[in-house]
Amino acid sequence: MSEPEPRAAAAQTAPPVVNLANALTLFRIVLVPVFVVVLFVDDGQSVLWRVIAFLVFAVAAITDQIDGRIARSWNLVTDFGKMADPIADKALIGAALLGLSILNELPWWVTVVILVREIGVTLLRFWVIRHGIIPASRGGKLKTLLQCFGIGLFVLPLHGALHTVGWVFIVAAVVATVVTGLDYIWQAISLRRSAHAAATDAKFR
User: Fold this and answer.
1) Among 1, 4, 19, 177, which is disulfide-ready with 76 (CB 3.0 to 4.6 Å)?
2) How confident is the model at residue 55 (pLDDT cuts 50, 70, 90)?
3) Using an 8 Å Cβ cutoff, are 19 and 54 in contact?
4) What is the tens place of the pLDDT at every residue in 126-136?
5) How high is the pLDDT of residue 189?
6) Quick one: DSSP state of residue 75?
7) What is the model's pLDDT at position 205?
8) DSSP three-state, residue 17
């Protein structure tokens, strides 16, 4: 009996797109509009609703940590997950930043710097998608973690020392955002160059 072709074998072992990890990613996307609605109840002045908004944000942020671990440990990593996971992160972070800036809780320059990077990286992913997938890096995950802590503290109606702690996380997140953004640009350029070099080499063989 002949052995199966490598591609056929890979197809047989490929994880299904419909799996728990991807379901958690989609759940995080669904929570984004829920968070926005709750955040703006009573024009963002209600302590109770701000705490509820924090809890919704926290649940969404926690799913970001869980879905990645499940995907890796259960061998459920898919191309859809690689694309949808960072998009879900950006939707949550972007909604939170815009909401906090509209409520005058967070300066607009913070929101602009982070969103320009996030949108830019998303466009980079689509720019190179036919050559390969740029997965979320460890630096990108650290950046998201810093953003979540900082934003979470700003969503809560805190004052004094805890508010200062929130600023520490926000500043660290901005730095990580810029640094990892430059790294993604380098990865995208390298991927395009590698694909072009491979295509040129194959053409002249």
Assistant:
1) 19
2) very high
3) no
4) 777 776 666 66
5) 82
6) T
7) 62
8) coil
Per-residue pLDDT band for 196 (boundaries 50, 70, 90) equals: low
- Which tokens in the block code for residue 39? 């955040």
CA distance 88 to 59: 13
Six-digit token string for 107: 């300066």
Residues 6+ apart with CB under 8 A from 89: 28, 64, 136, 144
pLDDT at 1: 43
The Cα 18–Cα 71 span in angstroms is 12
Among the listed residues 88, 90, 91, the one whose alpha carbon sits nearest the alpha carbon of residue 25? 88
> Read out DSSP for 87-152?
HHHHHHHHHHHHHHHHTTSS-HHHHHHHHHHHHHHHHHHHHSTTT---PPPHHHHHHHHHHHHHHH
* pLDDT score for 138: 74
CA angle 92, 98, 102 (to 5 degrees): 145
Q: Rounded to an integer, what distance in angstroms lies between the CA atom of residue 115 and that of residue 164?
A: 22
Task: Report residue 59 CA to chain centroid gap.
Answer: 15
